[in-house]
Amino acid sequence: MCGAEMTCQAFKTVAAIGLAAFASFAAMAPAHAGCMPLGAAGGLIAKNKLIPGTVAVNKAQAKGGGKVIKIVLCQNGNSFVYRATVLGNQGAVKTVTVNAKTGQ
Question: Which CATH class is domain 32-104?
Answer without folding.
Answer: alpha beta
